[in-house]
Amino acid sequence: MAYDLSFAKDVYNKSEMGHWIKMCMQCGVCAGSCPLRAHWQHSPRQLFQMVRAGKRDEVLKSSDMWMCTSCYNCIVRCPRELPITHIIHGLARYAETEKAVDPMQPTRRFAVEVFWKNITATGRVGEAMLTMRLYFQDGIGAGIQRGLEMRDSALGMLKTRRLNPIPFRGKIKGYDGFTKMLAKAAELEAKLENKA
Amino acid sequence: MEPKKIGCYICTGCGIGDALDLKALKAIASKEQKIPVVKDHALLCGAEGVAMIQKDLDEGAVNAVIIAACSHREKSAEFRFDIDLMDRVDLRDKCLWVQDVKDGDETAEEDRQMMAEDYLRLGSIKIKKMNVPDPFLHSEGSKDVLVVGGGLAGLTAARDIAKAGYQAVLVEKSDVLGGKMNAMFKVTPDNKPPYRDLADNFIGSLISEVEADNRIKIFKNATVTKTSGQPGQFDLIIKNATSTKEVRVGSIVVTTGFDLYDPTKLPSSLGYGASPDVVTSAEFEKMAKEGKIVRKSDGQPAKRVAFALCAGQRDKEHLDYCSGACCIYSMKQALYVIDQYGADASTYLVYQEIRTPGQMEDFYRKVQEEGGVFIKGDVTAVAGNPKGGVVVKVNDHLIRAHESLDVDLLVLATGMVSTVDTLDPNSPSPVGTGRDELPGSILNLQYRQGPSLPRLGTNDFPDSHFICFPYETRRTGIYVAGPARRPMGIAATMTDASGAALKAIQAVEAVALGVGVHPRSGDLSFPSYRAEGCTQCKRCTEECPFGAINEDDKGNPLFNPARCRRCSTCMGACPQKIISFANYSVDMISTMIKEIEIPEEDEEKPRILVFACTNDAVPALDMMGRLRSPISPYIRIIPLRCMGSLSLVWIADAMSKGFDGVLLMGCRHGDNYQCHNVRGSALAEIRLSKVSETLQRLKLESNRVKMVEVNIMDAETLPGVIGDFVEQISNLNPNPYKGF
Amino acid sequence: MKEYTFFPGCSSEHNASAANMENSIQSMCRILGIQLNEIDDWNCCSASIGYAGGGQLPRMAMSARNFALAQKQKGNTDLVATCAACWLSMRETNERIEEEPRIKQDINTALAEAGLSYDGHIKTRHMVEVLIEDIGWETLQSKVTKPLTGLKAAGYVGCQTNRPFGVCGDSYENPLYLDKMIEATGATAVPFPMKVACCGGALMFSETEKACVLTKQILQSAVDNGAEVIITPCPVCQLNLEVYQGMINKTLGTNFNIPILYYSQLFVLAWGGSWQDAALHQQVIPAEPLRRFA
Ligand code: SF4
Ligand code: SF4
Ligand code: SF4
Ligand code: SF4
Ligand code: SF4
Ligand code: SF4
């Protein structure tokens, strides 16, 4: 049913900063502020209205949230002071936890499969490993292809000592505690609700 | 009055002394214009310069002053003398500052000197032709104020009038005070920080306050059936079922409020009548007040409620305007639903634009926080739902989709319509006789121009310039406040009522002093006419923008000076040139025109006369001076009180004197008029359309005369406007009447 | 000697992509008499893209662990970050811990698993804030011994040093501090309308083609305005603008070869530091226009 508020209420409660969506006055400033706006099918304000209109699938399956470069343009311009960037990140994360997003969505894949795994594996970013994982996520052939495209740059980075030739890095000392901490945080996250 | 002793004081500061030939100027004043006292000073606005003038006044050597220095809008505090006759000649802003004279360019220097000398001549003539006006006084004036309508606005106005120490007469047509407010459940926190929470209806306490005040005389079940006279002496007939009373008041505040638009006239797409579950906001308010927010069809709780905003408003077919308060009251009503049903409530506001006047943006936020869902779009169809409630089809502009919304109730936020009887603003024409009865008229004015108040543009509300002159109708001493003036909400209504109450008090006080109320506050002059010359042509009585002139049985004008705004439109209207003010007349301007020196044709120095309205064009010309924008040295500017005073005889005078062209600068007229006197510039334009006759008679080209609209902000574009006209004129042969 | 707790961040590690930033900042601090005390055993801040895999609490727990270590090791001394993303996520975490009791509680429950706790109160500052507020413009200018007169530089502020927090109250739409820094070294800041445009950020990895278009516009604007070098405070910007130039040239038909430097590198050189001190040998696109000042 259109404008059924159950989806909106879920988002208000569970998605990061989702309760702020109520406060959007649809001025459109955010829509004009996104650097990749040409690639958004729905602008932030439209997504917000879709939430209010109960369009659960359209919102959660959308790749729009994944087009956010975290430039924070919208956040400083919104006359209603909505934390738009965080709301957009929140919707992306909510789509991820609801398993609604296409697993092959490139940014989702990079952020979840590559980046998050990379940092939680040792406690810090291993840039060389990150790059390798990124390149080889579509298989060896594609990886070599992408590696070749960037060969000159990579060589340059190596030469100027800005890329570690050894892709494996050690774990931080407190890695055990670090992992337990993350596990606990994830557990609490499931119960977390927005304050409003 | 003792004989005029004129003193002319020429300032040589601000570069005037360096640029102009002082000796020659002084000779013009004393030798040519025969002014007995002529002095100069290097800093006239300084203490010493002012003291020099004051000394001459104190010693009785002078009783009328010409200050030849800067624009009259400069240094007015310094040059404030306790005398009746003074004029300023502008040698700086409109002369020096707009003349671009290169070093050693003798022709340009000479042109500038000629301009300054002409301006000095104009000032001299003007002061010679001015007389001291006597105020219009009346011994039996009243300072009481009539308030018509006892709703929120009327109660507030009456209370404020009484609080200020005046007597109020409050006339209410029903048997209770409070008006539409009585039906309200709660009120929005329009004037109470933090502007978020609904407040209890306070009308009861306001009613008691007014009823307890012995300075307020209340007539219930009563109407005003006749209003005659003028400010300070409005004579009313107040009638109720059993009695008739005659009452005199000094001024009037109309606070008759609004009616709601008839919902049965709304487009069927909004569904009124399609189901009992489509209600108007007034009906919904009643339900909320009774604590019954339920479906009308079956009495089930109405937890899902949609509001259609702009139900007929901002729609050419229905109400062409925004009703100002309905966004807010719909939000308020959404809160009623949320308050009653808590988490079960779903409220939807389908809007065009959300309008949150005053502090109401904070209230809007509050309603959003509470979960009100705002949908920008249109309601395209409504159908009863067999399960109860209605299905509302919405075209959601935000997500670009047509959706259907299942709700228990649809509330139509209908708009406000006027309760005041009004006249067509563009008809200066005979509407009445001054003795008409119009059944149902709020005031039934015994005015030559009819019993009603002129309206604003195409809608039905009384004219009242919303920025410059709020509350002021086109009938002096009569003010409108609250939704009777234009649609508005509670806070605005109360502010409005207070404002109008103060205006009404200002009016009675000004009238008691015999001076103009507004916009020429304090002006002692008013028009009179020479009865022998009158042909009963009725132009003056028809054209007066303020309906100030009635007619006697023979058709002669009957001036009501207290109604008059001193605009001088009647003076310009009179074909017999018999209407004049003590200090402003057709003859004065004619003489000024004739005094300007016109060079011989072979000197190739054309002359162009500019008539400029003092309200907008003159300040714009001054600002042009500040910008130091050069204009042609052939221009001579004569300020007019209002373009409405334009007499065609001046054009003829200018042409026969040998001016090559005449440019008129008046305010914008028409629907978004900016004329301080509403119709002054419009009437000047109409008169001008007949000028070609005059020109033909003189065998002159009709494009020698042109009227332009000038706004006070036009300083930057004026040089272009003037330049274009000068060019147009220089393409013509010189006026052959030069030297005749 | 001014002391700060220091959070270098992953890209500033030895042999990492912003090693040139790290090395030049260390030189800069040496000259200014600033001591940076690195947090022992710090972890990744989770950066701007960590939200997707981490959500709120795990993401913030990572920054909280760094705060907790800092508090334990160095007390509540101001914490300095040099990377825009680190600075942003740490400030955000600290704000939410201080303002939202629920978050504070949950974060501490998680930290307890690692034997740590944190109750807020560490101020996170960006290195440029330290320069402007604690060192001051006068000192920055007075240190110049080799003015970079004639060098035309475009000050590229980018996103995350600028928004949402902003630097020292400067404007979001037209911040001036970086231009002022450039001018402080004696160089000329060219007009640069793209100074706060987005370089694509982390989307350079996942949406490379789309992000390259953004980066191209920035480079083009700098070149069009006559810049010989681009100066930035942000390692993500630096990386995207420098390392992808080759790919942009290839795919978008341009011919860029403009060095992308950190403000710290410019300062070190102008203050008399060597090419090495300024880590100018660590540029993938060599800093040729600076040769004349070396
Ligand atoms: S800028 Fe803010 S208020 Fe405006 S549409 Fe975007 S989120 Fe809504
Ligand atoms: S922060 Fe994200 S949503 Fe906001 S303008 Fe930037 S890219 Fe768009
Ligand atoms: S301001 Fe006016 S009065 Fe004063 S010196 Fe200038 S021109 Fe004279
Ligand atoms: S106040 Fe709102 S609902 Fe009323 S007419 Fe204006 S825009 Fe429409
Ligand atoms: S001066 Fe104006 S207001 Fe007065 S009577 Fe004449 S036209 Fe009417
Ligand atoms: S306009 Fe003049 S002539 Fe005509 S009625 Fe009025 S006073 Fe008489």
Please give a structural write-up.
The complex is a heterotrimer of chains A (196), B (740) and C (294). Chain A has 10 helices and no strands. By secondary structure, chain A is mainly α. In chain A, helix 6 packs antiparallel against helix 7 and helix 7 (127-136) packs across helix 8. The longest helix of chain A is centred in the middle third of the chain and has 17 residues, at 106-122. The two termini of chain A are 25 Å apart. In chain B, strands 15-21-16-17-18-19-20 form a 7-stranded mixed β-sheet. Chain C is α/β, with parallel strands linked by helices and 294 residues long. Chain C is 46% helix and 10% strand. Chain C is globular. Chains A and C meet through helix 4, helix 5, helix 6, helix 9 and helix 10 of A and helix 2, helix 3, helix 5, helix 9 and helix 10 of C. Residues 527, 544, 546, 548-549, 564-570 of chain B line the site of one iron/sulfur cluster (SF4).
Class inferred from helices and paired strands of chain A = mainly alpha
> Largest sheet of chain B, if any?
7 strands, mixed
Shape of chain A: globular
Proportion of β residues of chain A? under 5%
Distance between the termini of chain A: 25 Å
Rg result of chain A: 19 Å
Key features?
heterotrimer; A: 196 residues; mainly alpha; 54% helix; B: 740 residues; alpha/beta; seven-stranded mixed sheet; 33 strands; 21% strand; elongated; binds iron/sulfur cluster
Summarize the structure.
The complex is a heterotrimer of chains A (196), B (740) and C (294). With 196 residues, chain A is an all-alpha fold. Helix content of chain A is 54%, strand content 0%.
Please outline the helices and strands.
The complex is a heterotrimer of chains A (196), B (740) and C (294).
Chain A: H1 6-14, H2 44-52, H3 56-60, H4 73-77, H5 84-97, H6 106-122, H7 127-136, H8 140-149, H9 151-159, H10 175-191
Helix pairs in contact in A: 6-7, 7-8
Chain B: E1 6-11, H1 16-19, H2 22-32, E2 37-41, H3 47-58, E3 64-69, E4 85-90, H4 106-129, E5 145-148, H5 152-163, E6 168-171, E7 186-187, E8 199-200, H6 203-211, E9 216-219, E10 223-230, E11 233-239, E12 244-249, E13 251-254, E14 258-260, E15 278-280, H7 281-289, E16 304-311, H8 326-341, E17 346-351, H9 360-369, E18 373-384, E19 390-396, E20 401-407, E21 409-414, E22 416-418, E23 422-423, E24 453-454, E25 478-480, H10 490-513, E26 528-529, H11 539-543, E27 549-551, E28 557-559, H12 569-573, E29 579-580, H13 586-595, E30 608-613, H14 617-626, E31 635-640, H15 648-657, E32 661-666, H16 680-688, H17 691-697, E33 705-709, H18 718-730
Parallel strand pairs in B: 1-2, 1-3, 3-4, 5-6, 5-13, 6-9, 13-25, 15-21, 16-17, 16-21, 17-18, 23-24, 30-31, 30-32, 32-33
Antiparallel strand pairs in B: 7-8, 10-11, 11-12, 14-22, 18-19, 19-20, 26-29, 27-28
Helix pairs in contact in B: 2-4, 4-13, 5-6, 5-10, 7-8, 8-9, 13-15
Chain C: E1 2-7, H1 19-32, E2 34-38, H2 50-54, H3 56-74, E3 79-81, H4 84-99, H5 101-113, E4 124-126, H6 127-135, H7 137-142, E5 152-155, H8 177-184, E6 188-189, H9 203-206, H10 208-224, E7 229-232, H11 235-243, H12 245-252, E8 260-262, H13 263-270
Helix pairs in contact in C: 1-13, 3-4, 3-5, 4-5, 10-12
The complex binds iron/sulfur cluster (SF4) (6 copies).
